[in-house]
Amino acid sequence: MLPMLSKKISLIIYRFRERGLEVFLTNDTENAENWSIPEGELNNQLSQDRMIELDPVQQENGATEEAYAVEGDWHDIPSLKAMLYEDAMQLKEQLKTMDKGTFVAVKEAVKKVLPHQYKFLKELKEILVDRNSVKDL
Fold it and tell me: What is the per-residue pLDDT across 79-105, written as a single tens digit (0 to 9) for each?
């Protein structure tokens, strides 16, 4: 049996509102400026039926990070947590931080996330524009 290799992934939960595209960011600290895209270690693939797989990006330390995006809203968070829990037990601790998150307009989110995560948001926006021909994102 081959050993399971873990990799770091980010989960971008997005929705559309009057302000345009919004993404879900978490804050698991007391620092109001410490927002991030939910992320964790994954030992197997997530189910692809609802997910958009984004291109991997390289972090400043040279490590590669992958991201998946899924459309969802507040009422979807419990079912998304359950889906992810079933697919990736390793994300269990990170899922708890989803209770400390909020949706943020993508224009504001790019100012709050890490530089390499900005690339995920940019790609997601491009995919959604192409897919939905949505204006004013």
Answer: 666 655 555 554 555 555 666 778 889
Residue 50: pLDDT above 60? yes
Tell me the residue range of the domain where 92 lies.
7-132
Average pLDDT over residues 25-34: 76
CB 123 within 8 A of CB 65: no
Query: Is 1 domain-assigned?
Result: no
Residue reference for tokens 């390499």: 116
Q: What is the pTM of this model?
A: 0.67
- Written as one string, the DSSP assignment of 64-106 is EEEEEEEE--GGGHHHHHHHHHHH-GGGHHHHHGGGGEEEEEH
